[in-house]
Every structure is written in C-alpha cells, then in structure tokens.
Amino acid sequence: MKVTFNINFHTVWGQKLCVVGSIPELGSWEPALAKEMNYKGDGNWQLELELELTSPQQTIEYRYFLSINDKQIFEEWEKNHQVTFEGHANHYTLYDYWQIRPANLAFYSSAFTKSLFAHPCNTYERVVKSGKKLTIKISAPRVEKSQSIAITGNQECLGNWHPDKALILSCDTFPDWHIDLDANDITYPLEYKFLVYDNDKHQPLYWEEDENRKLDLPSQDFGETVMISGLYFRDNLPLWRCAGTVIPVFSLRSEQGFGVGDLGDLRMLVDWAKKTRQRIIQVLPMNDTTMSHTWMDSYPYSAISVYALHPMYICLPQMGELKDAGRAAFYKTKQEELNAKDFVDYEVAVGYKLAYCREFFSQEGQSVLSTPEYQEFFEQNQSWLIPYAAYSYLREKYGTSDFNKWDKNATYNKSQIRELCSEDSGAYPEISFYYFLQYILHVQFKSASDYARKNGIVLKGDLPIGVNRTSIDAWTEPQYFNMNGQAGAPPDDFSVEGQNWGFPTYNWNIMEKDNFSWWKKRFRKLSDYFDCFRIDHILGFFRIWEVPLDYIQGLCGHFNPALPLTEDEIEQYGMVFNEARFTTPHINRKFLPELFGDLAEEVEGTYLAQSSSNHFVLKSFCDTQRKIDALFAGKTDDVSLRIKNGLFAIANEVLFLRDPQEKEKYHPRISASHSYMYSELNTSDKYAFDQLYWDFFYHRHNDFWKAQAFKRLTPLVGSTNMLVCGEDLGMIPDSVPDVMNKLQILSLEIERMPKSPQSEFTDMHNLPYHSVCTTSTHDMSPLRSWWKEDRGKIQRYYNNVLHYEGQAPKECSSEIASRIVENHLATNSMLTIIPLQDWFAIDDTVKRKDIESERINVPANSNHYWRYRMHIPLERLLSEDRFNDKIAELITASGRK
C-alpha cells in the first residue's frame, strides 16, 4: 500500500523536514532512523512510502520534526498524528498541518477529556460508494457533553451553507472529531466551516471564528483515501472557569469511617461537590509514610514510596466484614471511640485499621490473591510493589526504616529481594499481606476515581517535591539522590528561618541521562487516579534550596544548581573578602544578652571559645546545629530551649557559605542583613554586600535557572495527559512565570501572599487565567484564624480590599467570609479551589467553634502533628441544604460552571 505524507512548512537553507513514527518504516520513534522528506517548492514537503499492512485495520502514529546537519532542532507539540489504514484502500494521501502547542492546552488534559467535557464515542458511518474517500479531522476539546461538532460548506453534500443541514462529525477519541466524505460529490475548490451543534435541541449553536476554510486538491483515484488532519476548532468563547474544594483525605469524617478519612469518604465528598455545583476536589499526597508507626508518620509529604498508597485510606466496609462476630464487635467499639474524637488519633486509628486488615487477610487473603484481577494488578505493578513489600517486611524485622541498618540488605540487591519475596520464601505470608493492602487500595481508589469522572468531578492530586532519605526510592535507586544535602526552602512568610525538610536532593544530571524516567513513572502512577495534579514546590525544578547535613534550620542553605561567586567577584563589588571571618560562625559579646538574657555568662563559659577580644566561636563539641540538637535532645524546659535556640542562631552567623563542590567559590547567606555579623560591617561594606546580594539572588541566575527548568519540565509535562498545576510560592525568580506560561502550568495565586514585593495583597482583578486561586493552603492559617493574627493588616484589608468602612470587627463573620470567597470566585483564574474550612466559614450554622483546631500544618515546626479532622460527618454535610445551596448560588453567580 502506498502512503504519501504532505505538509506545508517554510524552512531556511540547510534545514529539512523528517517524519518519525510508530512503525519500522518510520524509525519506530528513533529520530536517527526517521524518514527525510522531499521539498516540492512553496513550503511543500512530501514523503512517499510503500507499507505492508500487518492487519486489516492498522493504526500508526507519527510526527514531524525539523533537523539541520542531522540534528533534531524543532518538533511538533507532543500530540501525535494518527491514521488507521483500512484494507480496501490501496493509497493514502495525508495532508497534515504542523501541530503547535495550542493556547487552550488545558482543555486537552484528561481533566476535561475524561471528566468535565467527556464525550461518548459516537460514530456516524457514511458509506463512500465511489471508492474515493475524503476524511477531514479536527481537534475540538471545548465541547460540552450535550454538544457535537458539525460541518457545512459550499457543496450540496455539505448542505450549501445551511446550518440546519450541517453534517455531524464522529467523535472516536475525544477531543478528536472526523468526517468521511465521498470525493465524487465534491467540486474543488471546497469552502467549508465547522460549527457547534446542540444534540438535545437538534440545532446549531455557534460557528467557529475567522474566515472560511478552503481546500483545493487534485482529483482522487479509485481506492485512494485523502486525509486532512492537524486542524483546530477556532472558538472565541468566554473564559471557562470552575470551583472546587481542597481537603486532605485523612481529614474527611463519616459515620462509616474509622477515625480517619478514607477512600469511601472520598466518594461521599464527590456527591457533596456535585450537589454544590463544584467541579474539582484537591487532596494532599496519599502515599505511604510509615516509618516509625508513631504520629511522626502523619506528615504526608515524607513518603517512603512514590507509588504505594497509605493503608490508612482503606475503607473497611468496602473491603469486607469479619466473620467472627466477637472480633467484629470489638472493632465496632473501637470505631465508635475513634469517630467520637475531634482530631485524627493517628497512631491508634492506623494501628486498629491495620489490625483489622490483618484479620481480614487471614480470612479472605488467599482467595483475593488468586483472582485474575489481582494477578493483573501484580503484573502491572511488580516493579515497585516487590521492593515496597520487601522494605515493609525488613522495616519490621529490623525495627527501623533506616535501610543502612539492615545488615546484608542495606544495599539493595534485586535478585536477593526477588528471592525474599518468592512464594516459597518463609517471609512470603508477610510479604503477600503488603501486596494485598496495595491491591485493595488500588481497587478502592480506582473505583472512587471512576465515580468522580462519571459525575463530572475532577480529582486533583499532589506530587511532593521530595522523598524521605530512608525511602524505598533512595534504597533501590540511590543514583538519583544526593544524600549529602537536605532539601528545604529559603525564608518566607511561612518560616523566617527557612525550612529544612530533610529530604535528599536530586542528582539531576543522572536523571537527565535516562530522560527523567523516574519522574515520568511517578506521573503515570498518579494518572491511575487523578486527572489533575499540583507539583509541590515547583521551584525545585528550577533550583532547590540545599541545606548541609550539619544544619537543622534552613538559613545556611544555598541554591543548587547555582553560580557561586569567586573571591575576585566578591571584591569587585567593593568588599574586602575575609574568608575566615565571613564563613566561620562568630558572635560579638555585646549580643549575648539579647540571645540568652541572664544566661549569657553561663553560655559564654560553657559553649563558647574566645576568638578575639570581643568575639566568640562555638566550641568543637557544639560547633554545628546537628551537634547542638543532639546535646539538647529530649530537653524541653525553658532554659534548655533558650540556650539551644541561641546556639542555633550563632551557628547561622556567617555572611558567606563555601560551595560544597567548588571549594573556592561562595554563596552569600540568605537574609544576611538580619544577622549580627552584618550589623558590624562598616557602611561601605554594607552597601557593597547589599549590591552583591541583590544581584546574586535576583539577577545572576535568571537565565541559568530558566534553562534548567525548561530542560526538566518540558519533557515531563509533555509525558502526561493530566492538567498540571504548580505551587510557585516563596522566593520566586523572575524566570518562573515565563516558564510556567510557556508550558501552560497553572500558577497558584493567594490574596495574602502577593508575588509583587511592592504589594501587601494580591491584585485579584488581574490574576492570570492559567492559575489556581485560593484563600489559603494547608501551610497557612484558615480565614478565621488569619483574621486574628495582625490587626493592622486586617484593618487595611477590611477598608482597602473589602471596601468596608469603619473599624474591622475582631471576628471574621460569615458575611465577611462570604465576601472574601465571592471575590475569589469572581477572579479570572480557571480554578478557584477553596479549603473546606473556609467554605465552612461562610455559614454560622455549620462552622466550627474552635477556630485554632482548623489549622492543618505549621511549616515552622518540622515535627508538626498532621491531625486536622472535619468537625461534622459527610452524611450531615450532605443534608445541610441551606449551606449547600449558598455555595451553589455563589458559584453560579460568579459565572463558574
């Protein structure tokens, strides 16, 4: 069979077009084996191939790229061209349009194609009697479920421009539409246009924009199929916007639950979202975090696996009942005790849920593991499931999650672990229990995800930027991680001393060598359940804040990658560089009373060594924050805490940090102008340091970090169909908005965290469309708590933003909360996602009395207990008609769908 590829693309001398595709004749996606096209003049390129069909209906995919000197320099958007060859045609002539990244890329994501605008696969068969078929394909994602794409034009077969006689296109794989026409019925030139048709009312709704489309083709031969593809529907519709809720799944509460939110509760939350006209539910990470079986494991951003789900999310009623009436009654009693609590009692709830699962596994495990469904799950997931089960088994065997203490298993050995997990291994009964847990979680989560899609609700997941340093990933694939550094964040509104998350940083150079396969596998696993996701701390793809292992706090970190300064560069700013003075922590005696009060003399004698007439350094037994932390471990009295915090502060007293790789280069310490050492500089040195600091943190790295982000994010965003959002809060380089805009990654916009340092509050009237707008995040205080934090700021907000007159009330009333939520719904942001606590704040009959218990996390506290729980069960929430109607009315009034 003959296939002719045609495309119009203007090049310059030395450039050539190539076609690469899914079959050997097109290189099997290997660019070096792609077929070079022939130039025919006027920008027209052509390639002729002879293909042998391997089946009566064979589908191939392909794409075009531009090359020079045999190097690929420019290619189409990641969406491939696709054609299905049918055996009755002996010649296919393909006329393609170069596919660029569309301006409405979000509508091509699975959030829209599988949920919001999901279409049934309606096919309108049209018989082509002449043996000369003309197929026209168009991509049109923004079409409601009750609508279709139709075509009309200047031919009798297309209704002669009568919209009522327009032909409906088939929708085989939404958002792609096509129509088959008999070429014998067409006289060229053909003029035509597409329109949107209302299926319910059987009438046209609106035409596409701009001029008529024109087609002038040579006459076709018998048995020839001509295909036009790469077209996009041209609409000019109002901005499509929707609203939703963000809440951790563990915070959900129901009568069927077991003291902690689970996947059964998530289904009920979908019902509530639909009832209130919401379209999206955002959750926090749901990966397994089990390390110590204590409340310390409640931190959802410290996963032990980027694939495995936390067993606490199993819905016990969905899993099944225990046959032993006595045991069932026992767990019923424990369920009632846990459900009566206003917080998540993490250790107790997880402990009893796992115990129940073990008893149910003893009862039904073997029958579950013998099902074809389980076998299919195991085959598809064994690459991560086997290491996960082995890790969980070894964690319990050795009493620690630190794999460095696992004797012969400290270093991961694939064949050794396969043997441990084999069915004839003595460990298999325990190993298979972990398989069972993950299978049940998968089945329940897939069911909840499908239920959400069926009801037009998008589930939005959360991709943590880091993993725990004793995680399965660090154990099995250590080449991807730098264990000598700790990931964190520089100082911001969340924490003035920066954040140290303790995660290892990434070896991006190694990741790049296999085209970021580890990240792509993470994305694929997320897409099993989610159609939208948030990249936690997206700035980590530009650069990460790396803290040396000696530090507990985040102030003495540095950006990685970065362009550290040489001594000569520092001195070019007019500052004489004193390496010993500026890079070794020092403290002047006059500042000790400020740090230690009446303990200053005791501290000076015990912990400090004199380095000059007025200055001290830390003695060797406490000269790092890690040593200081160990000295005061377990001591919680006020005196110990004051000394510990003061010594921590001294350990931060440097102006420059030596780069760990390039030892002769230096990073200025973040927030150094607030240090005691800076205050001792003379005026000229302060001025020089300020100039150096400003250039280093706000100018020097812009192009460098932009290049890093494009290199990492472009292939990753292109590898997924999910709608991608980014958490771009904190110290934002100027390059971030440009990268996110080009890749159409939705930004995060928060009114009380403006991205302009000149503004106290974000300008809500000018938010970008490709953004997520919210009132607060899990790292912030909810609205009613925030209202009590800074009276001066709230007064300005009350008068200048909400435009109320007079004195701001002491409490954030339901009226004020409603006004704030209404303002957020009115923005241009595609998504307005409100925390559940802030939805509650708009109605006095449902909001919680205890305001402070609504806080989810305090970032400044690295040992925070994540235990927030809804104060009313979902069953009651579904019946709160006045509250639910108010939400629906606010959303409808804002024009959100």
TrEMBL record:
Claim: Secreted is one of the keywords in the record: no
MF term (GO), any: 4-alpha-glucanotransferase activity
Enzyme Commission number, as recorded: 2.4.1.25
Catalysed reaction, written as an equation: Transfers a segment of a (1->4)-alpha-D-glucan to a new position in an acceptor, which may be glucose or a (1->4)-alpha-D-glucan
UniProt cross-references to SMART domains, sorted A to Z: CBM_2 (SM01065)
Subcellular location(s) per record: Cytoplasm
InterPro entries in alphabetical order: Carb-bd-like_fold (IPR013784), CBM20 (IPR002044), CBM20_DPE2_2 (IPR034841), GH (IPR017853), Glyco_hydro_77 (IPR003385), Ig-like_fold (IPR013783)
CBM20 domain location: 1-100, 126-242
Domain of life, per lineage: Bacteria
Main subcellular localisation: cytoplasm
PANTHER family hit by this protein: 4-ALPHA-GLUCANOTRANSFERASE, PTHR32518
Similarity annotation: Belongs to the disproportionating enzyme family.
Protein name in UniProt: 4-alpha-glucanotransferase
Protein's organism: Parabacteroides faecis
